[in-house]
Amino acid sequence: MSELTETEKEKAKKYYPLPALAEKARIQNMDAYFEKWKYSVENFEEFWAEEAKMIDWFTPYQKVWQPPQGEQDEFVGKWFVGGKLNVTYNCLDRWIEKGYGDETALIWMGEDDSVKKFTYKSLTDEVNKAANALKSLGVKKGDRVCLWLPMIENLAIVMLACARIGAIHSIVFGGFSAESVKDRIDDSECTILVVADEVRRAGKNRPMKDNLKGIIDTCDSIEHVAVIKLTGGDVYEYEKDVDFLALMEEQSTTCESEPMDAEDPLFILYTSGTTGKPKGVVHTTAGYLVFGVSTNYYVWDYSCLLDLKGDTPANRDVWYCTADIGWITGHTQIIYSPMALGAVTIMYEGVPTWPHGGRFWEICEKFGVTHFYTAPTAIRALMKLGDENVTKWNLEKLKMIGTVGEVCNWPEWKWYWDVVGKGSSGEKPIGRPIVDSYWQTETGSYMMVNLGAVTPMKPGSCTFPYLGINPVLLDEAGSKVETPNTQAYFAYDKPWPGLMRTVWGDHERFVNTYLAQFPGHYFTGDYAQIDDEGYYFILGRSDDVIKVSGHRLGSAEVEAAINSHPKVAESAVIPYPHPVKGSTIFAYITLMNDEDASDEMKKVIQKHVRSVAGPAVYPEIIMFATAVPKTRSGKIMRRILKAVAEQKDIGNTMTLANPEVVEGLITRRQMMGEIQF
Ligand code: WT7
């Protein structure tokens, strides 16, 4: 056997959390974890009943889990049947009733350094005003409300206001386009759109509402556009506009929280799949909340009002998740789970690199952050800026750090461990644990994750299943793959309360996408493998989903945006490795007339896509092609396109309908030379 390189030796080691963390942990060692996990999957109803005690119910549920009865609730069943509750009662009122009204609930910081600290009382007042304002606009329980907002405190307030009155929020990431807002509004027939006049980004005001001009008028279900005047900029006005902050000021600070059925939808969040149309992932009230609370409680172990672990309410741990609320991470890990646990949660308006590259760590010092959660793409961006951006800040309060969204690979893992985690090297490296959490929009919260305080880590591994979760690796035929280091399809063989219930308006799509491929299982769409110690490694998507900076994009959606340019005949997009974004979009484009192919044309198409789909969707690399390889049934052969782009062996082209195009693509790719970022 050949000698291991230094890097391989380092990677092959296990890394250990600082031992002091285990002493106060809720699960104190790995034996206790394995025992609890075994119990939880063998007795999953009893286990989830225990977890559900962390929630306050208006009416107790009668049955923890009702198995699927027929097609409408295949696999997932119903959870906490008959229970009534309200998520905001759990996030706000119950802490006030226990005497914590003046304690900090949420700390919001703006790009301009302004800070707004909300106590449970002051946040409840704002939420109630917003809830009453929504009611005054005719919003009722079950109505859908679309929120297209930057990371301002009112995003948190309005989403909680929806939950308070039982309206279903559908939050659209600010980096998507007005067109994509329209598609989402139309799909779930939202009656209200809440939007800001402008966005503050890296010191400039940028348009937001203006982008809706001519688009919002075509959304038939919209009754009011609730405008949040953030910058006061001069923006286009629409007859259905309402000045939402002014309306809020007229409202009372009292609004009872609506008793919701356990299975009532809490929100819809659209996510990309394999077709051009995003899926409206539906999460419910009780199951989602119980799962979010349980996962955060055991994984991070922070002190919170539910369990102060010896801290005083004022000295609780401080939780900072850097995600945008437009993604599931923001929903579950900035707002609902930490707040329902009574944790201090931080929300920051801006980007990590402005006004300087140490912004995250500045926030950590300023608010005494103890638990910090970000994405590998952010780590890669920051590590390039130099260690002094981190080391100049006082991070002594920091106990645990974490990541989500894609694999945290060795270079960024190592940097995170050394520079932020203050991890030691040597035979048994010890430092601040890096929580590698693997989950999806669909799963509600963490599925595969290390318990920060106790699980020995392996770089790039999300380690072991969360309690109550039973992962399985399957081959094409659906048989279990138990051999270590063998790539397989990654699925779960048991439902859990936080699993999505349906795709809004298209239950069949839910069943076909997640449940049909491996009957009796939920299929993630990812590949994974275990090593010989049972550690799980996620190997990436098995479908056409592309992750750019951890953001999930569907290739068909990007292609639709490219194809909508009049000069484009056809396109095919694939992920291409990028040093910071993980992957970037590589687009093969066939023009109506190949003679138009020029660098100028590339820019025109890029600009077009930005305006149609939003800045989050950017075809960074374009290669013109006279045709793309397809199967005889007309399916684009992305495997071959990936090989051509990365200048790798293209393998077998026998199944192609048009194998002759491949040579031409290889030649054009060679002419592009090395791609620089
Ligand atoms: C996909 C889900 C869950 C919040 C953010 C992303 C990939 C996510 C990890 C991880 C390796 C990961 C998977 C998954 N992914 N976390 N820790 N290690 N891959 O949510 O947009 O729904 O994307 O992200 O491919 O299927 P999402």
Structure description:
The protein has 677 residues and is α/β, with parallel strands linked by helices. Among the domains are: 134-258, Rossmann fold, CATH 3.40.50.980; 545-672, ANL, C-terminal domain (GMP Synthetase, Chain A, domain 3). Helices cover 31% and strands 22% of the residues. It contains 20 helices and 32 strands. Strands 13-12-9-7-8-15-16-25 form an eight-stranded mixed sheet, sandwiched between helices. It has a seven-stranded mixed sheet with strand order 6-5-18-17-19-20-22, with helices on both faces. The protein has a four-stranded antiparallel sheet with strand order 23-24-26-27. Helix 13 (376-383) packs across helix 15. The two termini are 37 Å apart. The model has no long low-confidence stretch (mean pLDDT 96). 5'-O-[(S)-butoxy(hydroxy)phosphoryl]adenosine (WT7) binds at residues 271, 328-329, 404-407, 436-441, 462, 524-526, 538, 541, 547, 552.
